[in-house]
Amino acid sequence: MFSWNWRGTRQMLNILIRLRLKEMLSQFNRKKKSGYAKNLSHGAYLLLMVGVYLFCGFSIFQVFDAAAEAMVRLNAGSLYFGYSSIVGFGLAVIGSVFATQSQLFEAKDNDTLLAMPIRPSVILASRMISLYIQALLYESIMMVPAGIAWFIHSKDVSWLNIVCWLIPTLFVPMMAITVGAVLGWLLAMVSSHVRNKSYLQIGVSMVLLFGYFFMFSRVTSDLDGFTAGIKLVTGQALRSIWPAYQYGLACTGQWGSVLNVILVSVVPLACVWLFISRFFFYIVNEHHRMKKKVYVAQSLSVLSPKHALLRRERRRLFSDGSYVLNAALGILMAPVMTIVFLIFRGDLNEVMGKLFASVTIENIQRPGFFSAVEDTGMIAVAVFLCLIATTVTITAPSLSLEGKTIWHAGILPVSGRDILMAKVDLHLLMSLPVFCLCSVVFEFFLTGSVLARILLVAAPVMMNILIALLGMVMNVIHPKFDWTSSQQCIKRSVPVFVCTLGGFFLIAASGFVYIQMLSDILNLTQFLGICTLLMAAISLGLYAWLLTFGVKKLNTYYSF
Amino acid sequence: MLHIEHLTKKYGDVTVVDDLSLHIRPGELCAFIGHNGAGKTTTIKSCCGILQFDEGTITIDGLSVKDQPLEVKKRIAYIPDNPDLYEFLSGIQYLQFIADVYRVPAGARDERIHRYAETFQLTKDLAQRISEYSHGMKQKLVMIAALIHEPRMIFMDEPFVGLDPIASHALKQEMRRFCDDGGTIFFSTHVLEVAEKLCDQVVIIRKGKLAASGSMEEVKGTSSLEDVFLELEGDQTDA
Fold first, then answer.
1. Which long-range contacts (CB under 8 A, 24 or more apart) does A541-549 make?
2. Is there a contact between A405 and B86 if contact means CB atoms under 8 Å apart?
3. Strand locations in chain B (E)
4. Do B105 and A302 touch (CB under 8 A)?
5. Residue B32's closest CA among B151, B190, B138?
6. What is the distance between the alpha carbons of residues A335 and A357, in angstroms, rounded to a whole number?
7. Which of A248, A512, B126, B146 has an alpha carbon 20 to 30 Å from A182's alpha carbon atom?
């Protein structure tokens, strides 16, 4: 007779959840650290994460702030929250699709756990809880600032209003996991029949990202339309997206809708959980069915050791879709932005004005500013390309990604310099031609002095070089070879954060220094010239460190 | 061929290898035996230049591992106990990478890859990603990679772990052939029967110190290698 041991199941679930949480937190750990140093490292990392989260939240708040003010005036809370739920839900789905695929269906410990006396449903439940936490974090980046913006502008906010907003907000990530689990399963099934899984991942991610940006722009455009009174506040369009409509109503205090949101979140998730549990053995073993590729002998090409190292780095990059998407997205973005410019070049002033709308300098906000000063268009584009360059972080996780294969670096007859420079070279070979091409295209369509023309190419090039070297140096100082998932190095490692935020901070700090102290002495072109020289000097310093102390440090990692 | 003089390696306050000295001549097949944690892997890694040591000198073919590491690495190969390879490459891409780094000429690399892949029965699997390989297949691949540049000396750390009987037999034959052709092999193992049958020389290490070394006949005399080893371990326990 079948009987369900609730106590045992609960204990097992607790153990597995603790395991998941430990795994999530292990990315903050650095080996060979203990006591005070460990706490300091954890604290610094946590602060960094909170800082990034707050920065993103503040940026989103800016988007919702004006809309919230107008929508409060129009008493259109349900519409406002309904729209905010769409963008929050979308972000949570994007954030959880690949996590669902890797954590539910392709987890490394599937075989180990299935061999133990644990029900598949319990294994899945523990993983779904950790996925829920991740989805909640993604969703909250959108929905918490949206909620705060609304409550700031509302005149009479009661605890009941906040509870009515909070309860459905906590349930929306469940819908995201349901969709993520279905998509993740489809992806796992398709990818089990595809050899180059990374290309599939890149393709799907690009579709999801562009879909999301399209959706985000539609939502903000609709909200702008309501705010400006161009569109009528009827909510007709939102009614067609029933869960979002119900969420909107729930946030305005309608308890029936709160219940609807809970049901529409919990029931589908429970169905998906039961369905996947039923077929879990089949799903996780599906990938073994792919037909083996048989080797046919052929004459092999010959490369020099340096080129062989470079090719190895290139293959590593393109074998991992997540690596491409996280570390080389800027390389894809730069030409996309250039094409956008070419298509909408007639509206450049408006586009640039919007881009720099948050910069509090009167002359930059002035319409026609870019035609007022000869070089400004070029300088703005150069700075913009520099900003995109900070998102290219190919070198930052590259040494950590060696993982347990680091012993090769110790045994192969190549110097530490060659090993490190192969990683830097890949970064530059991937990014420089694209950025240079973009700069050259802009040269044709913008006017400016000779110095500005030189800087339009030189500044993004130097920023790329700086970020490549900074990433490499940071990874040599702060490697993590004992990862269980490469995502730990690619997405959440200290070197990646330092590169992206460091580059961004450098640009922001330079702008601040110029506005506060140097705008009366130097014009923008001269200042960018000095900044480019400074970047060159810092890069030279980083390069020198890499070839001396960096190589020495690398020698100590071989026996990891 | 291999000269280790007064090698000492410490991890913090713990001395893992303590004043170890040993010599191995060209053409010798030498087994390196010791209990778990005796310092075998540390010694082998120090010889290969993977691990920096505190005191002593190691020379291979007259070249210092500390002062001329790249020249030494061109002459040696290393087979680790756990074959962690580049899983994003296919087997053939990995071998091609190794051949490029060791500058193996085009014709020679094709011939050697074909020969060794046939020997270890891996030819058909070379197009597959290494991530799809079993432990034994990875072990075979790393052996082919070690032989591809025809090194003068090979260091092996537990080479028989994970191999099927056919591959294990092929490896023993290749090891013997390699040494008969003038190459030198220094390998650690816990399989004392294999060491006894296969090797000319044996080195026994105990708590980082040399316990015994010499030709197989000298060390084991009329008893078996297992008896000698257990006797030495027994001495240690008594002490």
1. A542/A466, A542/A469, A542/A470, A542/A472, A542/A473, A543/A469, A545/A473, A546/A420, A546/A424, A546/A469, A546/A472, A546/A473, A546/A476, A547/A417
2. yes
3. 2-11, 14-24, 29-33, 55-60, 63-64, 76-79, 153-157, 184-188, 201-206, 209-215
4. yes
5. B190
6. 23
7. A248
Partners of residue B78 on adjacent β-strands: B155
Which residue do the tokens 């839900």 mark?
A89
One DSSP character per residue, B191-207 reads: -HHHHHHH-SEEEEEET
Q: Across the A/B interface, how many CB contacts are shorter than 8 Å? A: 106
Q: Is A34 on the interface with B (CB under 8 A)?
A: no
Contact between B120 and B143 under an 8 Å Cβ cutoff? The reply is: yes
Q: What is the ipTM of this complex?
A: 0.85
Element (H, E) at B9: strand B2-11
- Mean pLDDT in consecutive groups of 10 residues from the start of chain A, 560 residues: 65 78 63 56 73 82 82 81 86 80 72 76 85 87 88 83 88 89 81 74 80 78 71 66 85 87 92 86 65 79 91 91 86 85 65 50 45 68 90 92 89 92 95 93 84 91 95 91 77 83 85 81 85 94 95 82
Query: What's A320's DSSP letter?
Result: -
Q: What is the pLDDT of residue A296?
A: 81
Report chain B residues whose CB lies below 8 A from the CB of A559: 45, 50-51
Cβ atoms A300, B113 nearer than 8 A: yes
Q: Which residue has the tokens 């070049």?
A: A345
The enclosing domain of B198 has a CATH number of 3.40.50.300
Report CB contact under 8 Å: A414, B101: yes
H or E segment and range at residue B15 = strand B14-24
The answer to whether A295 contacts B84, with C-beta atoms less than 8 Å apart, is no
Supply the DSSP symbol for A180.
H
Task: Report chain B residues whose CB lies below 8 A from the CB of A416.
Answer: none
Cβ(A225)–Cβ(A232) under 8 Å? no
Tell me which chain A residue has its CA closest to the CA of residue B92.
A295
Q: Give the three-state DSSP class for B184.
A: strand
CA B222 to the chain's CA centroid: 27
Q: Give dist(CA A244, CA A238) in Å, integer.
A: 7
Domain ranges of chain A: 64-287, 305-555
Distance CA A17, CA A122 (A): 10
State how far the Cα of A519 lies from the Cα of A265, in Å rounded to an integer. 54
Secondary structure letter of residue B99 according to DSSP: H
Tell me which DSSP letter residue B73 carries.
Answer: H
pLDDT one-digit tens code per residue, B108-154: 999 999 999 998 888 989 998 898 888 888 988 998 999 999 899 99
Q: How long a stretch of residues is chain B?
A: 239
Tell me the C-alpha distance between A100 and A106, whole Å: 9
Residue A20 in 3-state DSSP? helix
The parent domain of residue B28 ranges over 2-238
* Number of folded domains that form chain B: 1
Are the C-beta atoms of residues A261 and A250 closer than 8 Å to each other?
yes
Residues from chain B that touch A411, judged by Cβ atoms under 8 A, are: 48-50, 73, 76-78
CA A224 – CA A234 distance, rounded (Å): 14
CB crowding A321-351: b at 16 or more within 10 Å, else e:
bbbbbbbbbbbbbbeebbeebeeeeeebeeb
Distance of CA A92 to the CA centre of its chain: 12
Return the sign of the alpha-carbon dihedral for residues A345, A346, A349, A351.
Answer: negative
- Cα dist from A278 to A124, A272, A505, whole Å: 11, 10, 50
